[in-house]
Amino acid sequence: MTYAFPAPAKLNLFLHVVGRRADGYHLLQSAFRFIDRADTVHLTLRDDGRVVRETDLPGVPEDRDLTVRAARLLQAHAPAGAGVSIRLQKALPMGGGLGGGSSDAATVLLALNHLWHVNLPRPALQGVGLQLGADVPVFVFGRTAFAEGVGEILHPVTAPPAWYVVLTPPVEVPTAAIFAAPELTRDTPPLKIAPFSAGMGRNDLQPVVVKRYPEVARHLEWLAQFGEARMTGSGACVFATFGTEAAAREVLRQLPGTMQGFVAQGLDRHPLYDCCA
Predict the structure, then answer these.
(1) Full-model pTM
(2) Is the model's pLDDT at 21 over the cut of 90?
(3) Structurally, how many domains does the chain consist of?
(4) pLDDT, mean of residues 207-229
(5) CATH number for 95
(6) Which domain holds residue 42?
(7) What does the pLDDT read at residue 270?
(8) d(CA 268, CA 148)
Protein backbone atom coordinates (compact mmCIF):
# COMPACT_ATOMS: atom_id res chain seq x y z
CA MET A 1 0.00 0.00 0.00
CA THR A 2 1.22 3.52 -0.83
CA TYR A 3 0.60 6.39 1.57
CA ALA A 4 0.78 10.14 0.83
CA PHE A 5 1.92 12.61 3.48
CA PRO A 6 2.33 16.42 3.41
CA ALA A 7 5.67 18.09 4.05
CA PRO A 8 4.75 21.72 4.82
CA ALA A 9 6.92 24.77 4.24
CA LYS A 10 8.15 26.99 7.04
CA LEU A 11 8.70 30.70 7.32
CA ASN A 12 11.28 32.32 9.54
CA LEU A 13 9.30 35.17 11.06
CA PHE A 14 12.67 36.57 12.08
CA LEU A 15 16.22 35.19 11.98
CA HIS A 16 19.06 36.62 14.06
CA VAL A 17 22.68 35.49 14.02
CA VAL A 18 23.83 35.98 17.62
CA GLY A 19 27.27 34.38 17.54
CA ARG A 20 29.50 31.66 16.21
CA ARG A 21 30.78 28.51 17.89
CA ALA A 22 34.42 27.45 17.86
CA ASP A 23 33.56 24.73 15.32
CA GLY A 24 32.24 27.33 12.88
CA TYR A 25 28.51 26.71 13.35
CA HIS A 26 26.45 29.85 13.75
CA LEU A 27 24.33 30.48 16.82
CA LEU A 28 20.85 31.61 15.84
CA GLN A 29 17.57 32.81 17.19
CA SER A 30 14.51 32.46 15.01
CA ALA A 31 10.77 31.93 15.02
CA PHE A 32 9.47 29.13 12.81
CA ARG A 33 5.92 29.09 11.48
CA PHE A 34 4.53 26.35 9.27
CA ILE A 35 2.29 27.23 6.33
CA ASP A 36 -0.18 25.15 4.33
CA ARG A 37 1.97 25.01 1.19
CA ALA A 38 3.61 21.59 1.02
CA ASP A 39 5.52 18.95 -0.87
CA THR A 40 3.92 15.50 -0.89
CA VAL A 41 5.90 12.43 0.17
CA HIS A 42 4.60 9.09 -1.16
CA LEU A 43 5.75 6.06 0.83
CA THR A 44 5.30 2.41 -0.18
CA LEU A 45 6.26 -0.05 2.55
CA ARG A 46 8.63 -2.90 1.69
CA ASP A 47 9.66 -6.01 3.61
CA ASP A 48 13.09 -6.51 2.00
CA GLY A 49 14.97 -3.94 4.10
CA ARG A 50 15.67 -1.68 1.12
CA VAL A 51 15.22 2.09 0.91
CA VAL A 52 14.49 2.97 -2.71
CA ARG A 53 14.22 6.47 -4.20
CA GLU A 54 11.72 6.51 -7.04
CA THR A 55 12.14 10.14 -8.16
CA ASP A 56 15.36 11.94 -9.01
CA LEU A 57 16.11 15.41 -7.69
CA PRO A 58 18.22 17.61 -9.97
CA GLY A 59 21.70 17.96 -8.50
CA VAL A 60 20.97 15.70 -5.52
CA PRO A 61 22.50 12.21 -5.70
CA GLU A 62 20.65 9.46 -3.84
CA ASP A 63 23.20 9.19 -1.03
CA ARG A 64 22.74 12.90 -0.24
CA ASP A 65 18.94 12.88 -0.51
CA LEU A 66 17.63 13.76 2.96
CA THR A 67 14.53 11.58 2.58
CA VAL A 68 16.65 8.51 1.82
CA ARG A 69 19.08 9.31 4.64
CA ALA A 70 16.16 9.84 7.05
CA ALA A 71 14.68 6.43 6.29
CA ARG A 72 18.06 4.72 6.61
CA LEU A 73 18.75 6.37 9.97
CA LEU A 74 15.37 5.29 11.30
CA GLN A 75 15.97 1.71 10.14
CA ALA A 76 18.40 1.34 13.05
CA HIS A 77 15.34 1.49 15.35
CA ALA A 78 12.93 -0.46 13.12
CA PRO A 79 12.03 -4.16 12.96
CA ALA A 80 14.18 -6.38 10.75
CA GLY A 81 13.24 -6.15 7.08
CA ALA A 82 11.56 -2.74 7.32
CA GLY A 83 12.01 -0.94 4.03
CA VAL A 84 10.33 1.73 1.94
CA SER A 85 10.10 3.18 -1.55
CA ILE A 86 10.00 6.99 -1.58
CA ARG A 87 8.46 9.15 -4.27
CA LEU A 88 8.61 12.91 -3.84
CA GLN A 89 6.15 15.36 -5.39
CA LYS A 90 7.75 18.80 -5.13
CA ALA A 91 5.75 22.02 -4.75
CA LEU A 92 8.36 23.96 -2.77
CA PRO A 93 11.32 25.53 -4.59
CA MET A 94 14.80 24.27 -3.83
CA GLY A 95 17.13 26.88 -2.34
CA GLY A 96 14.15 29.06 -1.44
CA GLY A 97 14.42 29.24 2.34
CA LEU A 98 11.10 27.42 2.84
CA GLY A 99 12.75 24.34 4.32
CA GLY A 100 11.52 21.93 1.66
CA GLY A 101 14.31 19.36 1.92
CA SER A 102 14.30 19.41 5.71
CA SER A 103 10.52 19.14 5.79
CA ASP A 104 10.56 16.19 3.38
CA ALA A 105 13.05 14.40 5.64
CA ALA A 106 11.01 15.13 8.77
CA THR A 107 7.83 13.83 7.12
CA VAL A 108 9.65 10.58 6.32
CA LEU A 109 10.75 10.31 9.96
CA LEU A 110 7.30 11.09 11.35
CA ALA A 111 5.43 8.83 8.96
CA LEU A 112 7.79 5.85 9.22
CA ASN A 113 8.00 6.21 12.98
CA HIS A 114 4.29 5.37 12.87
CA LEU A 115 4.11 2.98 9.90
CA TRP A 116 7.11 0.89 10.99
CA HIS A 117 5.80 0.87 14.59
CA VAL A 118 9.10 2.34 15.81
CA ASN A 119 7.27 4.71 18.17
CA LEU A 120 10.27 6.80 19.16
CA PRO A 121 9.21 9.67 21.43
CA ARG A 122 9.36 13.12 19.87
CA PRO A 123 12.64 14.25 21.54
CA ALA A 124 14.41 11.11 20.34
CA LEU A 125 13.05 11.57 16.81
CA GLN A 126 14.24 15.18 16.87
CA GLY A 127 17.70 13.85 17.73
CA VAL A 128 17.60 11.61 14.67
CA GLY A 129 16.54 14.60 12.61
CA LEU A 130 19.42 16.73 13.86
CA GLN A 131 21.83 14.26 12.26
CA LEU A 132 20.35 15.32 8.92
CA GLY A 133 20.41 19.10 9.37
CA ALA A 134 19.66 21.92 11.77
CA ASP A 135 16.19 22.63 10.31
CA VAL A 136 14.88 19.06 10.50
CA PRO A 137 14.15 18.99 14.27
CA VAL A 138 11.67 21.87 14.13
CA PHE A 139 9.49 19.98 11.66
CA VAL A 140 9.51 16.96 13.99
CA PHE A 141 8.80 19.29 16.94
CA GLY A 142 5.71 20.17 14.98
CA ARG A 143 4.64 23.47 16.52
CA THR A 144 5.27 27.17 16.06
CA ALA A 145 8.63 27.53 17.75
CA PHE A 146 11.21 29.93 19.09
CA ALA A 147 14.56 28.36 18.14
CA GLU A 148 18.02 28.83 19.60
CA GLY A 149 21.46 27.23 19.34
CA VAL A 150 22.03 26.09 15.77
CA GLY A 151 18.25 25.78 15.55
CA GLU A 152 17.84 22.64 17.65
CA ILE A 153 16.79 24.22 20.98
CA LEU A 154 13.06 24.69 20.54
CA HIS A 155 10.39 26.34 22.67
CA PRO A 156 6.68 26.29 21.76
CA VAL A 157 5.18 29.74 21.25
CA THR A 158 1.92 31.19 20.04
CA ALA A 159 1.62 33.27 16.88
CA PRO A 160 -1.55 35.13 15.85
CA PRO A 161 -3.65 33.80 12.96
CA ALA A 162 -2.18 35.05 9.70
CA TRP A 163 -2.14 34.72 5.95
CA TYR A 164 1.04 35.17 3.98
CA VAL A 165 1.90 36.30 0.48
CA VAL A 166 5.05 34.41 -0.46
CA LEU A 167 7.03 35.37 -3.56
CA THR A 168 9.46 32.94 -5.19
CA PRO A 169 12.30 34.72 -7.02
CA PRO A 170 13.76 32.51 -9.79
CA VAL A 171 17.12 31.99 -8.08
CA GLU A 172 18.54 29.28 -5.81
CA VAL A 173 20.50 30.69 -2.88
CA PRO A 174 23.25 28.46 -1.38
CA THR A 175 22.84 28.59 2.40
CA ALA A 176 26.47 27.78 3.21
CA ALA A 177 27.78 30.62 1.04
CA ILE A 178 25.52 33.18 2.73
CA PHE A 179 26.56 32.10 6.22
CA ALA A 180 30.22 32.25 5.14
CA ALA A 181 29.92 35.81 3.77
CA PRO A 182 32.43 38.11 5.49
CA GLU A 183 29.90 40.95 5.63
CA LEU A 184 27.33 38.89 7.58
CA THR A 185 26.48 40.43 10.96
CA ARG A 186 27.05 37.84 13.69
CA ASP A 187 26.54 39.84 16.87
CA THR A 188 22.83 40.62 17.09
CA PRO A 189 21.91 40.86 20.79
CA PRO A 190 19.95 37.77 21.90
CA LEU A 191 16.22 38.14 22.54
CA LYS A 192 14.23 36.65 25.36
CA ILE A 193 11.24 34.53 24.40
CA ALA A 194 8.33 36.92 24.02
CA PRO A 195 4.90 37.04 22.42
CA PHE A 196 5.10 37.67 18.70
CA SER A 197 4.07 40.93 17.14
CA ALA A 198 4.02 42.09 13.54
CA GLY A 199 7.46 43.14 12.41
CA MET A 200 9.32 41.55 15.32
CA GLY A 201 13.07 41.31 14.70
CA ARG A 202 14.63 41.05 11.25
CA ASN A 203 16.50 38.60 9.03
CA ASP A 204 20.25 39.14 9.44
CA LEU A 205 20.94 37.19 6.24
CA GLN A 206 18.75 39.45 4.10
CA PRO A 207 21.26 42.28 3.43
CA VAL A 208 23.85 39.75 2.24
CA VAL A 209 21.40 38.02 -0.12
CA VAL A 210 19.94 41.27 -1.46
CA LYS A 211 23.42 42.49 -2.35
CA ARG A 212 24.25 39.30 -4.25
CA TYR A 213 20.87 38.52 -5.83
CA PRO A 214 19.11 41.48 -7.51
CA GLU A 215 15.98 39.38 -8.13
CA VAL A 216 15.49 38.95 -4.38
CA ALA A 217 15.87 42.71 -3.93
CA ARG A 218 13.32 43.35 -6.71
CA HIS A 219 10.74 41.04 -5.17
CA LEU A 220 11.23 42.53 -1.70
CA GLU A 221 10.83 46.05 -3.07
CA TRP A 222 7.58 45.19 -4.83
CA LEU A 223 6.07 43.38 -1.83
CA ALA A 224 7.06 46.17 0.56
CA GLN A 225 4.40 48.39 -1.07
CA PHE A 226 1.79 46.41 0.87
CA GLY A 227 3.43 45.95 4.26
CA GLU A 228 6.65 44.85 5.87
CA ALA A 229 8.35 42.34 3.58
CA ARG A 230 11.23 40.14 4.58
CA MET A 231 13.14 37.10 3.46
CA THR A 232 12.69 33.64 4.97
CA GLY A 233 15.75 31.60 5.93
CA SER A 234 18.71 32.23 3.66
CA GLY A 235 16.37 33.10 0.77
CA ALA A 236 15.39 33.39 -1.93
CA CYS A 237 11.69 33.48 -1.01
CA VAL A 238 10.21 36.59 0.57
CA PHE A 239 6.93 37.13 2.39
CA ALA A 240 4.55 39.62 3.95
CA THR A 241 1.91 39.01 6.60
CA PHE A 242 -1.82 39.82 6.35
CA GLY A 243 -4.72 39.47 8.74
CA THR A 244 -7.20 37.98 6.27
CA GLU A 245 -7.15 35.70 3.27
CA ALA A 246 -8.96 38.36 1.22
CA ALA A 247 -6.26 40.96 1.89
CA ALA A 248 -3.50 38.52 0.94
CA ARG A 249 -5.24 37.44 -2.27
CA GLU A 250 -5.81 41.05 -3.30
CA VAL A 251 -2.05 41.64 -3.11
CA LEU A 252 -1.32 38.47 -5.07
CA ARG A 253 -3.84 39.56 -7.72
CA GLN A 254 -1.64 42.59 -8.42
CA LEU A 255 1.54 40.55 -8.85
CA PRO A 256 3.36 41.48 -12.07
CA GLY A 257 3.62 38.86 -14.76
CA THR A 258 7.40 38.75 -14.26
CA MET A 259 7.00 37.39 -10.72
CA GLN A 260 5.55 34.27 -9.15
CA GLY A 261 4.09 33.65 -5.73
CA PHE A 262 1.27 32.16 -3.69
CA VAL A 263 -0.96 32.75 -0.68
CA ALA A 264 -0.66 30.45 2.33
CA GLN A 265 -2.24 30.21 5.75
CA GLY A 266 -0.19 29.91 8.92
CA LEU A 267 -0.43 26.57 10.72
CA ASP A 268 -0.15 26.13 14.48
CA ARG A 269 0.77 22.44 14.18
CA HIS A 270 2.44 20.16 11.67
CA PRO A 271 -0.17 17.99 9.86
CA LEU A 272 1.62 14.85 11.17
CA TYR A 273 2.00 16.09 14.73
CA ASP A 274 0.02 13.14 16.13
CA CYS A 275 2.35 10.58 14.52
CA CYS A 276 4.70 11.06 17.45
CA ALA A 277 4.18 11.26 21.22
Answers:
(1) 0.94
(2) no
(3) 1
(4) 97
(5) 3.30.230.10
(6) 1-277
(7) 97
(8) 19
Q: Using CA atoms, how far apart are residues 56 and 59, in angstroms rounded to an integer? A: 9
Q: Which residues belong to the active site?
A: 10, 135
Summarize pLDDT for 165-211 with one digit per residue, the tens.
999 999 999 988 998 898 998 888 888 776 666 667 899 999 999 99
pLDDT digits (tens, 9 = 90+) for 64-99: 999 999 999 999 999 999 999 999 999 999 889 999
Phi/psi class of residue 11: alpha, beta or left (left: φ > 0; alpha: ψ in -120 to 50)? beta
CB atoms within 10 A of CB 64: 11
